[in-house]
Amino acid sequence: MSLLEFDKVDKFFGDTHVLKDVDLNVEEGEVCVIIGPSGSGKSTLLRCANRLEEIQDGEIRLDNQSISDPNADINRLRQRIGMVFQSFNLFPHKTALENVTLAPTKVKGLDESTAEKRAESLLDRVGLSAQSNSYPNQLSGGQQQRVAIARALAMDPRVMLFDEVTSALDPELVGEVLDVMQGLAEEGMTMLVVTHEMGFAREVGDRIVLMADGRVVEDSPPEVFFENPTTDRGKQFLSKLL
Amino acid sequence: MAESYSDGRTADDEFQEQFLNDKTLKFAGAAVATLFTLVVGLFIGAIIFTQVDFGLFVEIIYPQFVNAYLLVLGIFLAGSVLSIIAGIFVGLGRVSKTRVTNTVASGYVEFFRGTPLLFQLIVIFFGIPAFWPPGEFPIQNWAIPAAIIGLTLNHAAYVGEAVRGGINAVPEGQMEAARSLGMSYVQSMREVVLPQAWRNALAAIGNDQVILVKDTSLLTVIAVPELISAFRQINSATFDPWTPILLVAIAYLGITLPLGKVVRYLEARSDWGGDR
Known about the structure:
The complex is a heterodimer.
Chain A: E1 4-13, E2 16-26, E3 31-35, H1 42-49, E4 57-62, E5 65-66, H2 74-78, E6 81-84, H3 96-106, H4 112-125, H5 141-153, E7 159-163, H6 171-186, E8 190-194, H7 198-204, E9 207-212, E10 215-220, H8 222-227, H9 232-241
Parallel strand pairs in A: 3-8, 3-9, 6-7, 7-8
Antiparallel strand pairs in A: 1-2, 1-4, 4-5, 9-10
Helix pairs in contact in A: 3-4, 3-5, 4-5, 5-6
Chain B: H1 11-19, H2 22-50, H3 54-95, H4 99-114, H5 117-127, H6 143-168, H7 172-180, H8 185-215, H9 227-238, H10 242-269
């Protein structure tokens, strides 16, 4: 049994079939990197994993518990799935520290001081202990994204979803966010990462999943995918990168 | 047709450069403003020195105008608090994806925005007591509660629309981020979306609350002893219009000007690190 399982998942937006019979298993401690051209369904797959999008057929399970079941206690399940967004989505009316403490106090019922201590150590871990009292619009994009990672980690998730988290950043700020993600991967966090950063995919990923037209078309270890892809689609994608 | 010059410029261009440049416009604006102030000042001065009877002015301030002022202030404060609370729920109903909630909230807004406040006050003040057997309704104590109910129901519709706009202006990613942390819809609304919606809606809500103050003047029709009623009483007793008019003006501005300050204070308070 894998930690996160996509089982014959179908997703439609109106008449558009965006995920076609997708099977994907993510093992505990694995860094699974999803790449592919835009419109291939990568982000949608990620958003289905914590039910920001509903699926029409198949099942998604975390720890063998269904996420996609309409009767699932989704608020409970989402606590175990951290998500980081392309556009950060920090809460602008709260300081960096308050962004991190909000959910632990409101959802888990932690008391303020425990939550703050934990938040301070998380902000320290992403290199932002000096910015804990700053508001999001006083921070750079890279800093905001690191706060967003700390905010997701504060719920002690079993798996972290990263949805093109560096795509909205100035090029010189991409590295600081990827460094934090690499640190997380090295500590054994299970991660599902949608990205266009091929360097990161190659170096940090345990598995490269290539999606095209709503399907998984190749699923290989990075050394295989980047040296000698096993499918034509993989070869085609790689040739466009070079 | 404008005459053409050899360098391609027209007489219009020439005119604009000579008379409609920034400097002349600035000067014209200042001149108009000064003239306006002068005329209004002279008019008010003329009224105060030729029309206002200061003996009467002092005589009627207390208790009549002070009482009317305090009553209007009280009705405004009650109506303001209640209409903002009710308006937040109307706004939440308007953005609800549940069909029945949304339809009821929309119908509410359409009715209370679509009929005059004066009509609504009449319905409440005269209509409600009709459900009681004749003589059993405490009609002599009904005017002020009816006034507060009417103003609340009416302004909740306007506040609701402001809140709806405020919520819609909060990026969708805010709700998604809150939900992805395991917060419920209600928690996400309360902790994340509404505080931002409130800031977005503040100017519109403040604007509506100023109108609420002025709408208390309609209460004269349902026998509330407010400021216009005080004017009518004094005017019919003394045939002096300008002395009570001056007091009415001072009383209304004595609520609306501080209210504007409160709104600006609230706006400044939700600055969240500047930039917006």
